[in-house]
Amino acid sequence: MTRDQRFVLTIAILASFVAFLDGSVINVALPAISSELGGGLSTQQWVVDAYLITLGSLILLAGSLSDVFGRLVILRIGLIGFGVASLLIALAPNAELLIVLRGVQGIAGALLVPSSLALIMSTFRGTAQAHAIGQWTAWTSAAFIVGPVLGGAFVDLLSWRLVFAINVVPIAITLWLLVKLGHRDERKAHTRIDFLGAALGIVGLGGPVFALIEQGNLGWGSPAVYVPLVVGILSFIAFIVWQRRATQPMLPLELFRHRNFSMGNIATFFIYGALGLGGFITVVYLQEVAGYSATFAGFAFLPSSLGIILLSSFFGRLSGKYGPRLFMTLGPFLGGVGYVTFLGLGESVNYVTEVLPGVLLFSVGLSMTVAPLTSAILGAISAEQAGIGSAVNNAVSRIAGLVTVALIGVITVGSLSPDNFHRVVIVTAALLFAGALTSLLGIRKPAAAADEPSDIAPPLA
After folding, report:
1. Highest mean predicted confidence (pLDDT) among 16-25, 59-68, 181-190
2. Are 286 and 411 in contact (CB under 8 A)?
3. The whole model's pTM is what?
């Protein structure tokens, strides 16, 4: 590996690590944020979803932005934007400003991961590229181990504000490395940016999410709820129509003509919707109802992060040999059974006997699912389409979490209690079972040429 390649790989890892760390750390900090700034459950939902609305809407746009302005320019903008937003969030005096800044942070975050991967793909070739992506995946996956534990320690020992302020350190290092790298940017001619598609996507996601979250405060009969809902639905329909007509759409709809790609993304929506919903409610419940410290709650799902890192490659190889359908069916099913065991949780929770067994089942199920799911989706399309295919799958996974977290106010009645927690757990398990059923009925074993699992990282990793 040359000096420039080492610099590029380090830059890509650090830039993506920041985005993944933020995504893994936030749930642990939510009770402390709402305790200090007020707002209850709806504030906690908005802190998560404001980020996901802009991230999910704009992540598909990052590729064309990189083509027009250059990968390094977009990466710098993303890093600086993410760093400034993180610092301002750490200083936010109220929940409203924090939520707005989380939306800004999501815009910057949408530029980081696609630009990082594009930088690796343009710098490495052949087996060196596969090795570089493997290292990128391993190091960024570590964010899911470090994030909850580090966030919990900050909340318990110092302040939740440091959860965001700490982002400045890796960002500053990455910006310095970009200066030392000294590469000139490459731009592609005749590339158009789908600004209309991006605007319709933001409104199409934001309107319904606003209605779902705020209906608990305002009621479905309020114009402040049903108007954004209707406008959002119409905008989403207009987004789909526009994507069919645009010469360079941000979402190429022809990809969904491939069975495994379309069915795999439907399964992704169910599975990652369950991950977003279950991860949110369980960590908050363990702190607010069961009385766990933020650090202990951060440790609760540590086995699932470890399982993905240790077992994903193993199940990926098995998927290449036997096809992804078996693992995409059995994995979500086991995960759903794991969540069903949480129906026994009350106000007093013993982690070893009541939480850990379900977490272990979920961990094995998730580890069994991630690599085969990615392999099935990207194996259904050509190598030239792998980049946009991966971006679409990433966007679907983010939007799934966005929608399910917004649904919590519809599922629950009143404040968080064991009964409300059980309702959310049932929906989480149902989503995982739906993912398993979709995979069983919809996924087919790919052609022999596509049997090997993809090296492109899954949305979670």
Report:
1. 16-25
2. no
3. 0.85
Q: What pLDDT is recorded for position 449?
A: 42
First to last CA, the chain: 24
Which tokens go with 172?
Answer: 């500053």
Contacts with 164 (C-beta within 8 Å, 6 or more apart), sequence order: 22, 86, 87, 89, 90
Distance CA 63, CA 77 (A): 14
Number of H helices, E strands in the chain: 19, 0
The pLDDT tens digits of the residues spanning 311-351 come to 877 887 888 788 889 999 999 999 999 999 999 999 899 99
> What is the C-alpha separation between 293 and 22, in angstroms, rounded?
19
Residues 153-162, mean pLDDT to the nearest whole number: 90
Report the percentage of the chain scoring pLDDT > 90.
34
Nearest to 274 by CA among 304, 233, 244: 304
Domains of the chain and CATH, by start: 1-183 (1.20.1250.20), 195-247 (no CATH), 254-461 (1.20.1250.20)
346: left (phi over 0), alpha (psi -120 to 50) or beta: beta
Q: Is the pLDDT of residue 271 over 90?
A: yes
Spatial separation of the C-alpha atoms in residues 49 and 44, rounded to whole Å? 9
List CB contacts of 172: < 8 A, sequence separation 6 or more.
Answer: 83
CA gap 175, 371 in Å, rounded? 31
Q: Which amino acid belongs to residue 385?
A: Q
